[in-house]
Design goal:
Shape: globular
Number of strands: 17
CATH class of the largest domain: Alpha Beta
CATH architecture of the largest domain: 2-Layer Sandwich
Number of domains: 3
Bound molecules: adenosine-5'-diphosphate, magnesium ion
CATH topology of the largest domain: Creatine Kinase, Chain A, domain 2
Strand content: 5-15%
CATH superfamily of the largest domain: Glutamine synthetase/guanido kinase, catalytic domain
Radius of gyration: 29 Å
């Protein structure tokens, strides 16, 4: 008789679960969309005219709000929040540890005479000093200036979670250095606005502002709570470190766009309702390629808001999952052998005159503008592929990039056949001097770019960056990442390229070249210069690695080395010139990311050794003892010779188990030794590299022997939910 283990208990829990049906507040989403947001409507109702205007001009033009008006805004916000039952407020920010942070304070303030008032003024709205010593600062915040402070970001509206008014803020050190994701993102949005607006003015003098737009697609896995608790690796590291691949994986691809399992569907409906109340415009939901993997995507928004919404949604998804006895896994690669999760970042630029600058249009003039932005983006990716690679680097994402199911670590751009042909054509036909006739012909050709090119462009799923008809899709971003990291870099490199575009075209104009021709020639230059980054083939293929090397495109497969890009001369100059990150801030980020890498691998390594020693080995011993007992019994009953013969299989198993146990144990000990050696290193980069090169490889080797044991040991005894159960039980 075996005693039921956590796995057996979990299995019976899961099989007994029913979907939890949750009613939406109304069948019409418009009835509750944004009810928990201090949005336009709420502002109109709760703010004085002056206060409303001040907030609007802060949002639209980045103007400062003076203290008197801030008091009025705070008062209106508090009234609104209180009318919805809020008792507390918090500054909500995105520190560099990857999650969002909040510190709740009550509106309530005792007066000291037994009475109390509800207080929330402009000062409390605009600035707060959270006790920030536990957030990573990469050495920026040294002890005597230990405090960082949070400052209100009026560009992202306040919202309510439970009874708390949450105010989106930036998080900076006392001396003004960015300690979060939002600060550099906002700076990059401004840099891109300036550079893009200047280029737009060649075509339309009415353009005052260009905004970056972002539509993310969030992939995730669901796991039942009981399974989660029975898997220390998933609990502590977010991914399964052990587990033999199931007989059937995702080969049949029948999960993709198949019907969504009922429990998962109830969960989705529930979190979407909460998201919609928070004004997050979630719209599509579907299954992903792997079993129990799903995706959720909103309508795109202005980038700062879209980033906040993604962080907020991940938080909501985690909270709601608990109500459904589930956990949501945002890890980029929870299970070996099936697809990992990404977060495609769909990126574009829109003018305040309502034009999507990456959408081909009807007239030659508009399409020259399209080409200017299109080609500048490609050139920016070409010039700074290393920074884009660094922006998506993480211990988690390393398992995914280049793993034959996700974009490779080589940064290239896919644009589809039509546009490839067009660029090749333009390269030939734009000349230093053109006859009026050839110029007219060229413009006619440019005028004919089809407005809808989805069919041409969305086929290739193997490219890290693809043009998908009216936007670029950065597909290499990891599912658990804050989009801001990748978007800050993309904005900055494109801003820098657009600035260079303007300088180059202006220089030609100054030499007497006509404006149109100057622009076309600048476009041509960029087409030629950035050709190497365009790749239309299979990004998963081995041939591409060789071809990319020939083209001089880097292929950096691990995070510690990918992060070297942050300390390069190019990075320092670029971020300084675009006023997005100072050298000090860049260095701090580099340190933090290296440290975070080390921590993640360290945790995985510890959990792995624990599981090998405390779960797998005892189970193997237990089963081996049973076999030994059986062999003894057979000898007793049949006599030594016949018993020996009858026990052949058991003896083989006994030896096999010993062999793998021995390996499992020696490898675990060796891994711990490697960790000890790495731990004494003081340089963050050296340490991360030591973890990457000398600790991490043990994880797969140990997994191998554990998986072998899983196949040898009685299924009833095995304590860890198996892969087939994690993936297929629902
Ligand atoms: P799919 O990629 O699933 O075929 P779409 O191409 O329509 O679907 O959209 C995918 C994502 O791209 C959505 O999140 C959508 O909001 C976003 N998106 C669409 N247009 C833009 C744009 N102009 N800027 C940024 N994101 C966009
Ligand atoms: Mg897409």
């Amino acid at each position: 008789m075996s005693t039921p283990n956590l796995r057996t208990k979990a299995l019976s829990d899961v099989l007994g679960r029913q979907p939890k049906h949750v009613e939406a507040p109304s069948s019409r989403i418009s009835d509750y969309y944004g009810i928990n947001v201090f949005n336009e409507g709420a502002m109109r109702m709760f703010l004085t005219e002056d206060a409303y205007r001040a907030v609007r001009s802060a949002i639209d033009r980045g103007e400062r709000i003076d203290r008197r008006l801030a008091d009025q805004v705070a008062s209106g916000m508090k009234e609104w929040a209180a009318s919805k039952g809020a008792t507390h407020y918090t500054h909500w920010f995105q520190p560099l540890n990857g999650s969002s942070a909040e510190k709740h304070d009550a509106f309530f303030e005792p007066l000291g005479d037994g009475r109390s008032i509800e207080r929330f003024d402009g000062g409390m709205l605009v600035q707060q000093e959270p006790d920030a010593s536990s957030f990573p600062s990469g050495g920026i915040r040294n002890t005597f200036e230990a405090r960082g402070y949070t400052a209100w970001d009026p560009g992202s509206p306040a919202f309510l979670i439970h009874q708390t008014l949450c105010i989106p803020t930036i998080f900076v050190s006392y001396t003004g250095e960015a300690l979060d994701y939002k600060t550099p993102l906002l700076r990059s949005i401004r840099a891109l606005d300036e550079a893009a607006t200047a280029v737009c003015r060649y075509f339309d003098k009415n353009v005052q502002k260009v905004i970056s737009t972002l539509g993310w697609e969030q992939e995730y896995f669901l796991i039942d709570e009981s399974f989660y608790y029975a898997r220390p690796d998933i609990m502590m590291a977010g991914r399964a470190l052990f587990g033999h691949g199931p007989a059937r994986g995702q080969q049949l691809e029948d999960h993709y766009f198949g019907s969504i399992p009922e429990r998962s569907q109830a969960y989705m409906r529930d979190f979407e309702t909460e998201a919609l109340k928070l004004g997050i415009p979630v719209k599509t939901r579907h299954n992903e390629v792997a079993p129990n993997q799903f995706e959720c995507a909103p309508v795109y928004e202005e980038m700062n808001l879209a980033v906040d919404h993604n962080m907020l949604l991940m938080d909501v998804m985690e909270k709601v999952a608990r109500k459904h006895d589930m956990r949501v896994l945002f890890h980029e690669k929870p299970y070996a052998g099936v697809n990992g999760s990404g977060k495609h970042n769909n990126w574009s630029l829109a003018t305040d005159t309502g034009v999507n600058l990456l959408r081909p249009a009807k007239t030659p003039k508009e399409n020259i503008q399209f080409l200017a932005f299109f080609v500048s983006t490609i050139a920016a990716v070409h010039a700074h592929g290393d920074l884009l690679r660094a922006s998506i680097a993480s211990a988690n994402n390393d398992h995914r990039l280049g793993a034959n199911e996700a974009p490779p670590a080589i940064i290239s751009v896919f644009i589809g056949k039509y546009l490839t042909d067009l660029l090749n054509e333009l390269e030939k036909s734009i000349k230093a001097s053109m006859s009026p006739a050839s110029k007219t012909e060229l413009k006619l050709d440019i005028g004919r770019i089809p407005q809808v090119m989805l069919d041409n462009t969305d086929r290739n799923r193997t490219s890290p960056i693809a043009f998908t008809g009216n936007k670029f899709e950065f597909r290499a971003v990891g599912s658990s990442a804050n989009c801001a990291a990748a978007m800050t870099v993309l904005n900055t490199v494109v801003a820098s390229q657009l600035k260079a575009f303007k300088v180059a075209a202006d220089a030609l104009i100054a030499k007497g070249v006509k404006k149109d021709e100057a622009i076309l020639r600048t476009i041509r230059d960029l087409i030629v210069r950035s050709k190497a980054v365009r790749f239309e083939g299979n990004g998963y293929g081995e041939e591409w690695k060789a071809e990319a090397a020939k083209r001089g495109l880097p292929n950096i497969v691990d995070t510690p080395r990918a992060l070297d890009a942050w300390s390069g001369k190019g990075a320092k100059e670029l971020f300084r010139n675009m006023e997005v990150l100072t050298e000090k801030e860049l260095k701090a980020r580099h340190e933090i990311e290296l440290h975070s890498y080390t921590l993640k691998v360290q945790i995985e390594s510890r959990v792995c050794a624990d599981m090998a020693t405390n779960h797998v080995l005892p189970t193997a011993v237990h089963y081996q003892n049973r076999l030994i007992q059986n062999v003894r019994g057979l000898r007793d009953v049949l006599g030594p010779e016949a018993g020996e013969k009858a026990a052949r299989t058991q003896l083989e198993l006994i030896l096999g188990i010993s062999e793998h146990m021995e390996k499992l144990r020696t490898l675990s000990v060796a891994m711990t030794e490697a960790r000890k050696k790495a731990n004494v290193l003081t340089d963050a980069r050296e340490k991360a590299i030591a973890y990457c090169d000398t600790v991490k490889p043990f994880l797969d080797r140990i997994r191998y022997h554990s998986n072998k044991l899983e196949l040898l040991v009685d299924d009833e005894l095995w304590p860890l939910p198996k892969m087939r159960e994690l993936l297929f039980t629902r």
